[in-house]
Q: What sequence folds into this?
């Protein structure tokens, strides 16, 4: 069973990466072979709307763009579960994750009620979102409804609704005194990091365990 995690944060050792690593550890401890891909280490573009993936005279589900994302798009077709991770930027996923999802989801989506997806099998997925704001602030900006489109598209293309893990009030810099950041209490941020982030990591671990349990055992 192979589980691939896609890190949509530019920080390779940031909050998103740490949460993803915990999820992958949970998956590995339940028999999965795992791989993490850092999108910001790759050179690629979003969908260019060529519609090659939907041509009647071509195999469906193949993205015509050829760049660093191409091997990943092929490899994902072999995955038994996928974990997506993105920090929240301006109340949305990062542009790197959005460009990746355009390519991944749209190339497997067909404008047809009979075959809405050409992704090879239904697989469980998890989406980890981490952000600076608190849960109450996220509710106030209607973050959940902003992210609903990703839940819907992933469900449509990959066949199952993603398990969502939201991580709030994250630690942005190791030393708050070095940055203009007077709207935050450095002490509160440190406490949250020390006391709550380990619980978030545990929740991510459990997400990985659950995905490994639900993943189709193809090999
Ligand atoms: C350009 C930019 C925009 C951001 N916008 C938001 C936002 O709208 N809401 C929020 O809660 N956090 C926002 N953040 C903070 C990050 O989401 C948060 O620190 C996250 O945990 C960073 O993850 P990382 O450590 O993996 O980079 C923003 C950060 C950056 C760099």
A:
């Amino acid at each position: 069973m192979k589980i691939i995690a896609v890190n949509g944060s530019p920080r390779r050792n940031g909050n998103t990466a740490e949460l993803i690593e915990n999820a992958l550890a949970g998956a590995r401890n339940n028999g999965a072979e795992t791989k993490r891909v850092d999108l910001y280490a790759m050179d690629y573009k979003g969908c260019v709307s060529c519609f090659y993936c939907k041509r009647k005279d071509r195999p469906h589900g193949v993205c015509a763009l050829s760049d660093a994302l191409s091997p990943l798009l092929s490899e994902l077709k072999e995955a038994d579960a996928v974990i997506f991770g993105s920090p929240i930027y301006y109340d949305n996923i990062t542009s790197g994750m959005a460009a990746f999802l355009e390519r991944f989801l749209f190339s497997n989506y067909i404008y047809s009620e009979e075959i809405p997806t050409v992704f090879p099998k239904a697989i469980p997925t998890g989406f980890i979102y981490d952000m600076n704001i608190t849960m109450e602030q996220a509710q106030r900006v209607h973050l959940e409804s902003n992210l609903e489109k990703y839940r819907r598209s992933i469900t449509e293309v990959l066949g199952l609704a993603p398990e969502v893990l939201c991580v709030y009030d994250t630690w942005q810099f190791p030393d708050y005194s070095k940055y203009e950041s007077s709207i935050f209490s450095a002490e509160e941020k440190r406490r949250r990091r020390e006391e709550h982030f380990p619980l978030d990591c545990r929740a991510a671990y459990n997400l990985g365990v659950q995905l490994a349990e639900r993943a189709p055992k193809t090999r």
About this structure: The first strand starts at residue 2 and ends at 7. The chain has seven helices and five strands.
